[in-house]
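Notebook entry, structure prediction.
Reason for the run: the old model in the group folder had no record of what sequence produced it. Starting over properly, with the input documented here first.
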Amino acid sequence: MGDTYAINHADLSKPTQFLHLGEVVKGTKYKLKDYTEKFETDKYGTRVDASELMLEQVDTHDLVKLVKEKRTTSPQSVANFLYGWGGTEQAFAVKKIRNFH
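New structure, fully documented this time:
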């Protein structure tokens, strides 16, 4: 069945998910697409595992790279706005790294 990858959520109350390439991360629209084993040398000359797991958003096919032991911000993050004028309110969300008018 292939290698198994552990996905940890930033919210520590959520359990680790153990998935294979092609499987969708529970609670998201991202599936595991590819894995690249990679090593780097840190400033002290120590060899560090910097392997990368690529995720793909199933609807838009946007890619997100996860690097081992590093936190990644989801491009699905949004800012929610509430605009009020003249007694009316309008709510809207803007995705991270998007412009709005």
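Summary: The two ends are 48 Å apart (CA to CA).
The old model has been moved to the deprecated folder.
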